[in-house]
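== Folding task for one protein ==

=== Format: two labelled lines per protein ===

==== Paired sequence and structure tokens ====
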Amino acid sequence: MSRHRIALVASARYPIREPFAGGLEAHTWQLASRLRARGHEVTVFGGAGSDPALGVREMAPLPPLTGHARSDVSMPAEWFLAEHHAYLGLMLELSSPDAPYDVVHNNSLHYLPVAMGPAVRRPVVTTLHTPPTPWLESAIRLPRSGGRPRFAAVSHTTAGQWRGLVPDVRVVRNGVDTAAWTPGPGGGTPVWSGRIVPEKGPVEAIRAARAAGSGLRLAGPRPDRRWFEAEVAPLLGDGIEYVGHLDHTALARLVGSASVAVVSPCWDEPYGLVVAEALACGTPIAGFARGALPELLDATCGVLADPGDVDGLAAAIPAAARLDRAAVRRRAEDVCSVEAMVRGYEDLYDELVA
């Protein structure tokens, strides 16, 4: 394994710090920290307010706009402009012949690092963290000179969704630190964790837990407070509890204490970091068989219902609780370790630089 100088492009909108805004930020923190520990020189480009220990280079903020610009009736949302400005400035910087990096790893969801990748004089690899989006498809379809863009995907499921447009995708599954996410005693109220948004299915999880009579503790950020107050808050009480947005230490303790982790995606979940976290804690999964969940789970560690089948999910909760927690932990060590993830990216960097 060679040591590399890596530019790691992260989210410009959300800081990379605990409690993390989502799985992408947690993944970026883990990847950067582990690569550094293994001797690589990593520069992380991310949003303001990130963990000081990560040494993030903050991307350029949007400068004040003139009154004439603001009066333009076609002006997009300011957050969109801010992201566009941040990534445009960064990609112009990385395209300099003096940029001191061996490889650029785009870990963001933005289109500009893909569209402007050919201008960078170093190899650029983009990790596909989501199913195809219009913005990324547009950027990938642009005619380009020079070498072909390189892509990794967080699961075989996600790679398959992109394969019609990106035929050569390296699968490097996300991983969790199995030394930090440690087995817990289990036996407690089932847990649901993640961003509390419609596509993650918290409402479906609550309805399933009510039908199962198991109770449920929900943990995670609430990016859309109006939706939370309208759709989730009225369902709380009588054994259903929102416990807040927790840092990893507190979340690992919560997940490890639960009898079951309920994972209820209402979209094609590309990976599901909450699945890996629960498995590492020895907590079996009751979930919907959607996205990458059937790829990550087998009969030793999870029970899956058909997508959207709330009654089936309710039946899966007590069935999953009967699984052997030691076998669940072994599944995490075999399939979801951060060590395997980092080795996968190191192999890819070696190939790109060579």
About this structure: The chain is about 40% helix and 15% strand.
